[in-house]
Write a structure and sequence with these properties.
Strand content: 35-45%
Mean pLDDT: 83
Distance between the termini: 46 Å
Low-confidence stretches: 4-32, 38-55
Number of strands: 15
Radius of gyration: 19 Å
Helix content: 10-25%
Structural class: alpha+beta
CATH class: Mainly Beta
CATH architecture: Beta Barrel
Shape: globular
Length: about 290
């Protein structure tokens, strides 16, 4: 049996590794909490802490399934306060977009280890698009305004550790298939009312056309989080290009004003586009802190 001193030392190393863990593209403080859960419930992780901190190996693998996107054109000025240092707004044909996104986070693993009770859950968020210019290298990424998760502890840890605008809500999802159609719905209870995003689509998808709005929305492979006036968190997300399914019908009931503010409410009355993607397996790599 390990001595108490040795156990405390290992525990501190695991906590430090967890703090250095990546933020996730849709639920970006989940990994911090999940690493600790894995350590407590399954014992020490096979990879030593120094390996956990390595930048070469993906920290998290999962599947993002049945994504629904509602995209809105908004004025640039309402997003300026949220833009992380070292990035700038990424525009499509001179237009600025935000997206409501719902999806399932499934089969979550940390270095191949399943996370008890935290493998599968719904996620609902509002995000916008930025680009970071590193000379000849342009990194196109996403920034989150607010994320809704169905676990109180995840939301609490995220607010405490990163001062992010996380919200815990009761959530549910439904998936209804017929021979011709697929209907997906994500719901969450906020301020006593159920909000939802429902979309109906066919079963056949295709890669988005080059230069299309769908390609712009889905082809962002970096995540950025504003940590301070001159500090930004950056992380890489890896997945294949997603096939897009056009919707035949959609229904969105979302309390935009109370969730995101009146400025967003004024410009999110009707989406410019709505589409569905079946998603794919993904990998998330450790984050870096950028001092700008």
């Amino acid at each position: 049996m390990a001595s108490p001193v040795a156990s405390q030392s290992v525990h501190r190393q695991v906590l430090w590794a967890a703090f250095q863990a990546p933020v996730i593209c849709i639920n970006h403080d989940f990994t911090w909490f999940a690493l600790i859960i894995t350590y407590v419930e399954q014992g020490p992780i096979k990879s030593p802490p120094n390996a956990i901190l390595g930048m070469e190996k993906a920290f998290l693998s999962a599947e993002w399934k049945n994504l629904v996107f509602a995209n809105y054109q908004v004025p640039e000025d309402i997003l300026i306060p949220y833009v992380p240092a070292g990035t700038e707004l990424d525009l499509y044909n001179g237009k600025c977009f935000v997206s409501l996104v719902g999806f399932m986070f499934s089969n979550t693993r940390l270095y191949g280890v399943k996370i008890p009770a935290y493998q599968n859950f719904e996620e609902f968020n509002l995000r916008f698009y930025v680009v970071r210019n590193e000379g000849e290298n342009f990194k196109r990424g996403v920034v989150f305004i607010k994320e809704i998760v169905p676990r109180r502890m995840i939301a609490r840890v995220a607010r405490w550790l990163y001062d992010e605008h996380y919200v815990y809500c009761k959530m549910n999802n439904t998936l209804h298939q017929t021979a011709d159609e697929l209907t997906i719905q994500y719901g969450f209870r906020f301020n006593g009312d159920w909000n939802y995003f429902q979309a109906t689509t066919g079963h056949t998808g295709a890669l988005p056309l080059p230069g299309s709005e769908e390609e712009f929305i889905t082809e962002h492979y970096w995540g950025y989080t504003k940590q301070g006036k001159h500090l930004t968190s950056e992380y890489k997300v890896q997945h294949p290009p997603w096939e897009i399914n056009n919707t035949t019908n959609h229904d969105i009931r979302c309390n935009i004003k109370d969730l995101y503010g009146e400025a967003f409410n004024q410009h999110m009355k009707k989406p410019s586009s709505v589409f569905v993607s079946t998603g794919s397996a993904i990998k998330v790599f450790p984050r870096k802190l950028l001092r700008v």
